[in-house]
Every structure is written in C-alpha cells, then in structure tokens.
Amino acid sequence: MASQNMATARDKTGKIYKIRELLESKFEQEYEAEQRLIQMELEMQGKEANELMMTCDDEDPFEDTGDATIGDVLKILSSMSGQIGQLHRKMDHIQKEVEDVSIRVLRVEKKLGTTLATLEQVKDAVALGENAAGADAGEPPFEFDPVANEEQLNELDYRLATDSTYQSNLTNWLNKKILGEEPNGRLVEAMDLVFRREFLPLCSWKGRGKPGETKIPMSAQTHIMKLFTALGSNRFIAITDAFVAKFFLKKLPHAKDRLHVKRKNVTLANRPNSRPDSTQVQEYEVL
Predict the structure, then answer these.
(1) What's this model's pTM, rounded to 2 decimal places?
(2) Contact status, residue 199 vs residue 252, Cβ threshold 8 Å
(3) CA distance 287 to 284
(4) Which of 7, 39, 236, 274 is an S-S bond match for 181, by CB 3.0 to 4.6 Å?
(5) In 178-271, which residue ranges form alpha helices assigned H by DSSP?
C-alpha cells in the first residue's frame, strides 16, 4: 500500500507504481499456485508410495507357509522384487516432477525480476523526459525565417561563421524538420527551409546570369554551404562540398520554374529507403 502514495516528480500520476503493484500481485499468485501444485503432487505421490508399501507388507516372506515349496518362496521373492522396482520408479517420477515444478518457479521469479527492472527503466525514462521538458520550458523555442534577400543571406553566412551556438541551434532545428534520408532529397528540403523560393531566381552559383545580368553568387556563402553539407549527410553517407556545389549548379538555373511547382511534403510513410547501396556511397564520396 505504501507504493501507491509514492507518486513523485518522476511519476506525478502514480501509474507506474500501480502497474508495478498489479504485476507483483500477479506473479505472487503464480508463485503461490506453483507452491500449492508442488505440495499437492508430493502428497498424492506420497500416498501412492504408502499404498504400495502396504501392498508389500501384506505379503510377509517370513510367514509360516507350512508346506511351502522352494517355488513358492521364489514366487514371493519375485513379487516383492517387482513391487520394490515399481516403488523406485514412482520415487524417480516424483523427483522429476518436483524438479520440473522447481524450474517453473525459478522462471516465474526470473520473469518477475525482469519486469521490475523494466519498470525501473520506465521510471527513469519518464524522469528524464520530464526533466527535459522542464528544461525546454525554460528556454524560448528556436525560430528561423527563410532568407528573402541578399542582405539576409550575408547576415546568415556571417552569423554561422561567428556564433557557434546559433549554428548548432539552426542545424538541430533544420534536422528535425527534414524527414528524408537520401542526400539529394535532404538538400531539396533544406533549400526550401533556408531560402524563400522567390529569392533563389536572383542567385546563381558563381554570380553569372544572362548577358548584362548580375546575380548573387551562392558559392561565396561558404558557411551556408558547410551547413548544407551537414544537412545533406545521413547516417550512412557524409557528402562532400563538391556534392553540394553540384546540387546548386543543377538547381539554381531552374529556380524560377520551381516557383510554380507544388511543394511535396515528405512524411515518414512515403520517404525512400534510408539505407543506400554501395554504388550510391561511392558516387557521393567521389563528387
């Protein structure tokens, strides 16, 4: 009963302790049932053994048999030998059943121990979750507005170069938003999160456009490109700066066309297989 009142900051509802009590009660009932089974089997087998012994006692080999022949004596001895052998087999059977029941009891005890250990882990996880929630509650959520002009582009690149805390927060925030696993897909998602679509047609990789047209050189934003290198990598592939450069060389000339393309929402259900084959790994490393 004491555990019902132990709801602390780790488990404000007390549900974990109630679950623990229910499990302890269940395993205690199973343990008591096993013990009763052992007792009943021992009593039944003991009763059978006593009856067998009484059967043996009914035939007294030293009883005065009068004119008993040697054949009669041998018959009595043979009968007694068979009954003794039967008694031994009964005792062996009893011993085996006791061992089997003992093994079942040990399994119940092991299961109970494992369950209690799991409950302790659950309590620790709940405590960590509540502590993390409390810590997050004390800090304002990270916010980021997509780049909409050249001034904001230069400001972002400078801040990534000089503010490691901001760089870490932005990287973590973007990684939480990006659901894809394949590097090209991750870079597309990152591009839509970091830049406004209306801004990208003003950019090219080296700043060159049509004759007489000057564009914003994306290659000059070295720290933003390093950010994309980190975002495009996944658990199995670490992409290179050359891979990111090739990505922007391919995407920026078509940035105006993407203004009219509906953005595709990537979900956990429709994202591609996260583990690439070896040829993909080699391709990304060579680029």
Answers:
(1) 0.48
(2) no
(3) 5
(4) 274
(5) 183-194, 222-232, 241-251
